[in-house]
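Input chain follows. Return structure tokens only.
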Amino acid sequence: MTTEFDYDLFVIGAGSGGVRAARMAASKGKKVAVAEERYLGGTCVNVGCVPKKLFVYASQFPELFHASKGFGWSGAEAPTLDWAVLRDNKTAEIERLNGIYNNLINNSGADLFDGRATVTGPHQVEVNGKGYSARVILIATGGWPYIPEFPGSDLAISSNEMFFLDELPKTAVVVGGGYIAVEFAGILNGLGVETHLVYRGPNLLKSFDREMSDKVTEGMAAKGVHMHLSTQINEIIKTDAGISVVLDNGSSLDAGLALYATGRQANTAGLGLEHTNAVLRPNGSIVVDDNFATGDPSVYALGDVIDRVQLTPVAIQEAMVLVDHLFGEGLARIDYGDIPTAVFCQPELGTVGLSEEQARAEYADIDVYLSDFKPMLQTLGGGSDRITMKLVVDRASDRVVGCHMVGEHAAEIIQGMGIALKAGATKAHFDATVGIHPSAAEEFVTMREKAR
């Protein structure tokens, strides 16, 4: 198949989606190349999901130390954090994962290029000053943090830099209201940093169920995060002690750092797609069809760079569908409905299916079941955390169309709920399921009274 070209598939970007596509194509006997200019594993492994979750774990220990006293433990009253140990241990783990990705690519038989690849025309790629031809070019370059320009914006940092700080500040300002902002606000607060969360809108996590996002906001405030909603930043000023963040209400916040978590944009700048017929949206993301084909027959794209659902497991699934389309039977499809997801904020949010607001817009009548309770750990631990669970049901069919949870282990529990919703489970199926006792998860199958 490579008689005309150097490669059957040339993948630009060695993140989760790009690596999966390369490995699968190589396993089918295709000649494959992968080029990565920065780090193997992409955003998720290096400056996203993995190190973030490690930091979340670290930030939860103070509450666990406090709770342990109620269970008879002593000696953990005044624990201290060595930031350098946490940071460097995290880095060592990421380097281990980088090595695994390197081995996965090499063992698959694909060629790995360490360098920035650009598209020089249809079927043409250049990397490290040398040109290569490919039957198919796959763009899997992911996204990159976006910081808007304003006075002093150069003093702000993005989530990328948060994983490598020389030291933790005493005070931090986190700007944004989405996944990254609320997660880092919880991390910093848990690590002992005085944390201010500034968001221009009135509600955090605005794309989620409103009732549940409000529970997150309340929980974060209860844990000590200072909330500044419906507030914008006019300017950041350099001071002798650090920075001063000037708000639009006339007040200012003195801090050691300002983290801007105001979204990510497709990483397509300087990629050379202007030399092809691929079409970009105003935000830089690539327009593709159901088979991930661009406007150029030789160029495909998937993952965050196409700005559909920016989740690592989605990119991996897209890669498997694409390889089947290009080199298999062409029968695989991806269903973007009922994708479970979690926000590792504190308290944690897990969700699958429709929010109550979305369900009311889509169905004539819905029933809502709600459970709010103190988790068992807190009964002796002396904490104030609560768990809230919610089921949204289409009354006509009895099908559960939305499942939401705020509280400990939400991500782990919602994964199972995702299977149930994908299978079309009804409320009767939930009611007929025997709960695991004592557990928080059993509440999902014991809710009988409608909240509304």
